[in-house]
Each structure stands twice: as structure tokens, then as C-alpha cells.
Amino acid sequence: MSTNATRSGHGGGQLAVADALASLLRDGLPLRLTAYDGSAAGPADAPYRIDLRTERGLAYLLTAPGDLGFARAYVTGDLAVEGVHPGDPHDLLKLLMNHLKFKAPSPSEALAIVRSVGLDKLKPPPPPQQEAPAKWRRMLDGVRHSMGRDAEMISHHYDVSNRFYELVLGPSMTYTCAVFPTAEATLEEAQFAKYDLVARKLDLQPGQRLLDVGCGWGGMVRHAAREYGVKALGVTLSLQQAEWAKQRIDEEGLGDLAEVRHLDYRDVAESGFDAVSSIGLTEHIGVRNYPAYFAFLRDRLRPEGRLLNHCITRPHNHRQEIGQFLDRYVFPDGELTGSGRIITEIQNAHLEVMHEENLRKHYALTLAGWCRNLVDHWDECVAEVGEGTARVWGLYMAGSRLAFERNEIQLHQVLATKTGDQGNDGFPLRPTW
């Protein structure tokens, strides 16, 4: 395999751009890198090629090393990738994650790199329009996880385009981890199975009342009403989600049982629910707010009522904020921790934990399905939201799939009940789901 690098018009201790970037890698380049100055590095016969097309792209890479700089250059088109579809760059990301290890350059190497690229490349260019402000700038919009700031951050991610979500998520319009009964199951079958698993864990019965917080496009609300005859209320901070859900509820003739409100869950005044489901909301709550969050959900339940919490978790129980790319482009203000911390907080809210389940592998399969949909509908997705935003989603979903596959993140369902003072929990001796 050839690893020759070409240099164009550089001398006197200076490096060509491709060589300068390659020199920062501990083990060399695992792919072909070409740059706007005509230079190239890495194996000429590599299956993937990265083309750094502009000086702005180089400035992005140098001023924000790591995933943020790469994302900025990639989203703007200043950095192009050949050999992989932008809707599903999973295999490329897997290669990069396994083989790209950076080293600290020596003073002479650092000087050569600076001479090669120029001091002007060390000034950060304006970020792409898809990027949310930095954390310190977001503080100007209110305290973290205040109602106003949460509404803005949720809107940043979910109020993209309902049509775009239809193309990527498929007919179920479900943007949470599915449950695959078999590896061959379709995404739609797996999303139905997920909702039904939640319903069975909650032991939903006709005539009961369900509160679904962070309800998205109303998938759980509609499933509970349609399949179990439950009177279900869902709330979401996304106006576009609420409007879509209301229309679908009317189309399915579920208006007498199902309701979705554009509302912060903290503004739900009703109580006495037989069950509460929280599917994909805890990631947006903030770890410090877990005590108030689970206490609020507990107070919405009747005695012996059940809570099902479904959320992305870490494989450890430390509070850890998400990476810069995810924080700026996907889930601003998002935080993750382990299932142990979540179970602890649920127990501290005086709820009895009855069962927990890790669905990590299922989320990897779910994300693979979403990426397939994005690839299949790429042109229409680009027409709907623009190529930059479509690139963000391909990068985010493929990267998340890889993280689930590598056990860097997990997905846990935790089932709890509001046990009475005399120990009455409403559960049979063995699970029925």
C-alpha cells in the first residue's frame, strides 16, 4: 500500500497542508487526504478520501481541534469525503475513531506547521448557521434548564421540519430507541414493539389515564389510546411536534382518548394518573434537576401508579456533559449519566424501582435504520432543510450509532411504582410483560 505524500511549492522547513495535518497524527493517516494547495498524504489506494477544499476549512480544523472543527468544515462543505454517503458516514467514522490518535508536536514541528498554514489560519472563522451558541453565550438566554431556555433549546433541535422528520424517522414519526423483536424486524415493527413494551410494563388497561411527558409527535399517546383504550395526555415543548400530533390524532379518530398539548411538563396541573411515561426526555432535564423532575412525576401518579423512564445513559454514573459537536449542533444543554444515578434519584423520590433494562444494541439498530432512510431520501431531505443540516444529521446519527455499538452510551428503561404506606405496589409476584 502506497503511503507517499506529495508536496507543492513548499520549502525552507515548511510543510504542505496535507503533510502538516498528517504530522499531528501518532500513527499516520489511515485514509487519503488532499488539500487545496495541491498536497496529499496517506495511502493513495485508501477506500476513503478526505478533500480539504478551502483555507477556511483548515482554519476550522486548527482553531477547534477534534469533533467540533471537523464538523464545522464538513457541514460547510469546506471538507468533503469521498467513498461514503453523507447520510451514513458510519464506516468512515469507525475508521477514524479506531486509527486517528493525535500527538503533541515538538516546538520545531509546531513552528513548521504554523509557518506552513500561516498565522491567519489560527483566527476562528464564523461558525456555520446550524451551530448553536457556545454554553457561555447561551447563559444570556436564561439559566440553564429554565423553562424559557429549555423551550429555545428544544426548538433548536425539533422544530427543523416535520417533513424532514417524516423522511428520516419513517411512518411512525418516533424519534426514540426502538425495540427489535428480531434482527430482521423492520424499523416500523420495532417502534411498535417499543411502544407496546412500554404499555405492557405500565400494565395499561382500558379506561386508565396516561401522562406522556416529552411526547414528541404523539406516538406513545396514540398507541396507548388506539391499542389499549387509555385516555392519554402528551405534552411537548416543540410547537411543530404538537401541531403534527394533533392533526394525526384527528386523522386516526382518537380525539376522544388522545390529547397533545404544546406545554412544558412542569405546567401539567392534573394528577391522579394511572401511569406516566417519559421516553427520551430525561436527557434534556439536567442531572441536577433529577430530584425535582422525578418528584414532579411521582406527584402526578395515583397510589400504585407506575412510571416508565426511557433515556440514553452513560456506562458509568458520573455526571458528564455531551461532546462539543452534539452540544452545538444536536442537543444543546444535553447531559447524560448512568442508570445507577437515575435509579438512585427515582428511589430518592420515594418511588419503588421494580425493573430496569438496557436496550443499547437496539438503539444502534434504530440509528442504522434512520441513516438508511436519510440516504434513501437524501435529495428530498436536502431540498427540505439544506445540505448543511442534512450533513449534520448524517454525521450525528452515524456517530451515535457507533457510540452505542462501542458501549460508550447506553439506553435504559427503568420501571417504578408509587408504593403505598402499607407496602401495596400493585404488582403481581412475577412480571406480566
* CATH structural architecture of the largest domain: 3-Layer(aba) Sandwich
CATH superfamily of the largest domain: Vaccinia Virus protein VP39
Radius of gyration: 24 Å
Tally of alpha and pi helices: 17
The secondary-structure class comes to alpha/beta
Give the ordered list of helices and strands.
Answer: HEEEHHEHHHHHHEHEHEEHEEHEHEHHHE
In helices, the fraction of residues equals 40-55%
* Strand ordering within the main sheet: 7-6-5-8-9-13-12
**pLDDT averaged over residues:** 89
Instruction: State the shape.
Output: elongated
When the domains are counted, the total is 2
N→C terminal distance: 55 Å
The description of the largest β-sheet is: 7 strands, mixed
Strand residues, percent:
15-25%
Low-confidence stretches: 1-13
And the CATH topology of the largest domain? Rossmann fold
Family: Belongs to the CFA/CMAS family.
Pfam families: CMAS (PF02353)
Organism: Nocardioides bigeumensis
GO biological process, one term: methylation
Please describe what this structure looks like.
The structure is a single chain. This protein folds into two domains: 106 residues, Nonspecific Lipid-transfer Protein, Chain A (2-Layer Sandwich), CATH 3.30.1050; 270 residues, Rossmann fold. It is built from 17 helices and 13 strands. The protein is elongated and about 75 Å long. The N terminus is likely disordered.
